[in-house]
Amino acid sequence: MLDAQNPLQHELAFYENHKSEWLPQYENHFVVVGGDQIAGFYKDYESAWDAGTKKFGLQASFLIKQICLHEPVYFLY
Amino acid sequence: MIITLPAEKLLQNGPIIKVQIGNPSDPLVQAITVNALLDTGAAFSAINPQIAHSCRLIQRSQKKVHVPGNTKAEDAKVYPEFAATLGFPESDLDRIRVHGVIACPIFETQFSCLIGRDILRYWEFIYNGVLGQFSIKDSRISFRSLTEPTHLSN
Fold first, then answer.
1. Chain B residues touching residue A64 (CB < 8 angstroms)
2. Contact of A38 with A22, CB cutoff 8 Å
3. In 3-state terms, what secondary structure has residue B98?
4. Could you give the percent of chain B with pLDDT greater than 70?
């Protein structure tokens, strides 16, 4: 489900289109995507954020997404 | 950090600490200090959307979340995830330089942030309802030593 207002709509679509290619090698890693460019795959969020800000800029829009076969549903109780 | 409260207050409000939320992309933006509930029932940490707006946090992803009141799995909604810096004033807990937090409405007056299991995984958290006391110890150094490879040099 993508929100029309979502600033990461393009990157999320890019992720969905490439997820199956990345899963075998990078399941549970964090991928960093800005536009159609990838800033790499990382084992933790902090490293992914560092790589994204280095490649795209601190204030730039980019996606940090953990690669999962099925999109998890998280519970807040 | 050990916090001691009247046992009744701990029963009523739960374990609450101060959290300072900052913008890792713009250190000039004033960080905001809010109350946060230590919530073992939350898979992820969450903040009220107003905080993300005030700190001008940048959205980095989104997550599908099931919140109280949802009765069916399909009721889960997608919420934005922002990168934030988390500090813990009035405590000896180490700052978290950058971390993903979900922005979803928290309809409580006592707190506007939930510290979920994504952060609790780094801490040893002991709750003593009899004494009205809870304690938190940052175990990130020992956690890292358990999970990260050690590079040995000759």
1. 60-61, 83, 100
2. no
3. strand
4. 88
pLDDT tens digits, B95-120: 999 999 999 988 888 999 999 999 99
- The answer to whether residue A31 neighbours chain B at the CB level (below 8 Å) is no
- Structure ipTM: 0.91
- Please check whether residue B99 touches A, CB under 8 A: yes
Contact state of A64 with B60 under an 8 Å Cβ cutoff = yes
The predicted pLDDT at position A12 comes to 97
Please state the rounded mean pLDDT for residues B39-64.
Answer: 96
For A36-55, the DSSP string reads TEEEEEESSHHHHHHHHHHH
Angstrom distance (rounded) from CA A16 to CA A26? 14
Beta-carbon contacts of residue B3 (< 8 Å; ≥ 6 apart): B15, B17, B133, B134, B135
Asked if A33 and A65 touch (Cβ cutoff 8 Å), the reply is: yes
Q: Which residues of A touch B76 (CB under 8 A)?
A: 73
- What is residue A28's DSSP assignment? T
Chain A interface includes B46 (CB < 8 A):
yes
pTM of this prediction?
0.88
Asked if residue B60 lies in contact with residue B115, where contact means CB atoms within 8 angstroms, the answer is: no
Find the closest chain A residue to B25 by CA distance.
A58
Record: contact A76-B65, CB cut-off 8 A: yes
Per-residue confidence (pLDDT) for residue A40, from 0 to 100: 97
